[in-house]
Design a protein that fits this description.
It is a single chain. By secondary structure, the protein is α/β, with parallel strands linked by helices. It folds into two domains: about 160 residues, NAD(P)-binding Rossmann-like Domain (Rossmann fold), CATH 3.40.50; about 120 residues, N-(1-d-carboxylethyl)-l-norvaline Dehydrogenase, domain 2. It has twelve helices and nine strands. Strands 3-2-1-4-5-6 form a six-stranded parallel β-sheet, sandwiched between helices. Strands 7-8-9 form a three-stranded mixed β-sheet. Strand 4, helix 3 and strand 5 form a beta-alpha-beta unit. About 40% of the residues are buried. One of its GO terms (molecular function) is oxidoreductase activity, acting on the CH-OH group of donors, NAD or NADP as acceptor.
């Protein structure tokens, strides 16, 4: 049995290294693939086969993808020289990319028409979890295929959930991301108001991290706000695109969600305000500028 992993970026690198351990244990043959030679060095150093040519992966029983966006996934799978041109019935594609629900169902349908099984398995967790093999992985596709893939997923995640048919993994991830984005928007709007009216930023932050209004977002990001740290590998612009994917579904299904719509407007203000390349909590700077305050700890310069 042969496995290939395509896309060794911030998250894919750690995932690929964990999956590759199966070759060392004699479970399967492994091939690492990336368009850029740099990430392949860590695999070469450990004795694993590598390639920059996607076509070299097409003899694999299972091909795993972790790619930046829908356009690249489409090109890799359905493009003129994509995987589908070379694969045969019975091979399986497992996609960890975070892309749109509608887009992934279209790709899955194309694969199914050729006899290729496709699982959408978006991931949740930061880079450290990808290296530790403790990601959450939400999966959509045929349950029978999921069951055959799960032992491989267990090498990369500590929470592996089968959510339903094709698209169910992406839909779950979209809902999770939108819930996180709503939480970020809430403290980003409210903390500057509190500071404007005389509250101490650190004490207010302590309340939002510990009291009933706390969330994963506030516990993780309020300390960064207080320190003036807005750098991160995942930009506010990309976070907004996650909500666009959800909105696309809501329009199609004619479902009104006022809270999500309001959150999108907050993100739009931050994008227009020059925060698109920073992490999502950078939207607080739009409201800081509007109210002429800084939500920072004492002594911040």
């Amino acid at each position: 049995m042969k496995l290939s992993f395509i896309g060794l970026g911030v998250m894919g690198l750690g995932m690929g290294l964990n999956l590759a351990k199966g070759e060392q244990e004699g479970e399967y043959e492994f091939l690492a693939c990336d368009a850029h030679p740099g990430p392949l060095n860590q695999f070469k150093e450990k004795g694993f086969n590598t390639t920059t040519n996607i076509e070299d992966t097409t003899d694999s029983d299972y091909i795993f993808l972790c790619l930046p966006n829908l356009e690249i996934v489409r090109e890799v799978v359905l493009g003129e020289n994509g995987l589908l041109k070379h694969l045969k019935s019975g091979q399986v594609i497992v996609d960890f990319s975070t892309i749109s629900y509608i887009g992934v169902t279209e790709i899955a349908d194309e694969c199914q028409s050729k006899g290729i099984d496709f699982l959408d398995c978006p991931i949740s967790g930061q880079e450290k979890k990808s290296l530790d093999g403790t990601l959450s992985i939400m999966c959509g596709g045929k349950e029978k295929i999921f069951n055959t893939v799960k032992p491989k997923l267990d090498r990369m995640g500590s929470q592996i959930l089968y959510m339903g048919g094709n698209g169910a993994g992406q839909l779950t991830k979209m809902i999770n991301n939108c819930a996180l984005n709503i939480c970020v928007a809430s403290f980003s709007e409210l903390m500057p108001v509190g500071v404007k009216l005389g509250l101490d930023p650190e004490k207010l932050g302590d309340v939002l991290m510990t009291a009933t209004g706390s969330s994963f977002a506030s516990k993780t990001l309020v300390p960064k706000v207080l320190e003036g740290n807005f750098e991160h590998g995942f930009s506010l612009e990309r976070a907004y695109k996650d909500m666009e994917s959800m909105y696309e579904v809501l329009v199609k299904e004619e479902i009104p969600l006022p809270t999500l719509n309001g959150t999108m407007q907050s993100y739009q203000l931050a994008l227009r305000g020059g925060q698109r390349d920073f992490y999502k909590h950078a939207m607080i700077r739009f409201y800081e500028d509007m109210l002429d305050v800084k939500v920072r700890k004492e002594g911040f310069k």
